[in-house]
Amino acid sequence: MSRTIQTVDAQWLKRLLPRRPAQAHKGYFGHVLVVGGDHGYGGAAIMAAQAAARSGAGLVSLYTRQEHISAMLSRQPEVMANHQHFTTMLDRATVILAGPGLGPDSWGKALLAQLLVSNKPQLLDADALNYLATLSTAEQQQLQHDNRVLTPHPGEAARLLNCPTAAIEHDRIAAVQQLQQQFGGTVLLKGQHSLIAGPKQQLARLSCGNPGMASGGMGDVLSGIIAALLAQGLNSFDAAALGGWLHGSAADQLAAERGERGLLATDILLPLQKLLNGKT
Ligand SMILES: NC(=O)C1=CN([C@@H]2O[C@H](COP(=O)(O)OP(=O)(O)OC[C@H]3O[C@@H](n4cnc5c(N)ncnc54)[C@H](OP(=O)(O)O)[C@@H]3O)[C@@H](O)[C@H]2O)[C@@H](O)CC1
Ligand SMILES: Nc1ncnc2c1ncn2[C@@H]1O[C@H](COP(=O)(O)OP(=O)(O)O)[C@@H](O)[C@H]1O
Which of 5, 122, 164, 238 has the most crowded Cβ, counting Cβ within 10 A? Predict the structure, then answer.
């Protein structure tokens, strides 16, 4: 069935993120648990946690390798970082973000086996997607749920659909819809004019973003933004679409001020807070 393509714009922000109630406390805005950062990849998980904190989540925790804990705390002490008590951390979280820097090894796989069966809202990126691609169709179907966001780049999308990356890029609309049908929830297919397909036949396209964003860690920051929006109560489609718009619009502001070349993923955090609050 063909879906109408919606364009995400600033109106979505007004509609989906109204002013906070005056009596609000941190418990109103959810608790994101970031799971990632195997040896050598701590930065990805740290950037995702930092982006979630900067995007309005009430609380953010990070489960990672012991060697990354002090880097996280010195960079952003608001994040609760731990390398033990995974089950307790999973129980306390309201939203799970898994994948950035998680790696392909047994450490990450064991964590995924535990968290994928949770029915809490989830965002899966990077190595969590690569793991999903290794499961049988029956296992993939068993793990589907509507409040889950998958954020593949075209290389990851190709692994999920078991086809060449060129086939994804050849027909991105068909690819995002096929991913959504096969894996359920919402799928955001990254790249120029990212596409978002949701569980109720929704389809949206971003017109923001620029090639300055082609730098390592940019997707990790996107995952943190979307997870924070899930934590604030948005459904998977709205969180992915609005998160993608905030991410691309922040990058466009930076590119207009400073140019595209040399844009870094953590730079996105600078304009992000103003954008989130409707101040451009
Ligand atoms: N600071 C840190 O700690 C950082 C850590 N990171 C962590 O590193 C881990 C590996 O993640 P990754 O994305 O680099 O590896 P991977 O999926 O194998 O991609 C390479 C392959 O996929 C393809 N491909 C990639 N992008 C594509 C695109 N847009 N469009 C099309 N194709 C694309 C590409 O194909 P190529 O074009 O090169 O032929 C190549 O085959 C992961 O844990 C991540 O979280 C990163 O987040 C960076 C910052
Ligand atoms: N040329 C481009 N135009 C618009 N957006 C882009 C472009 N290149 C990259 N991006 C965006 O930057 C992000 C890159 O994510 P990803 O490939 O997962 O990076 P990483 O794995 O390094 O974090 C995605 O949100 C993608 O849509």
Answer: 122
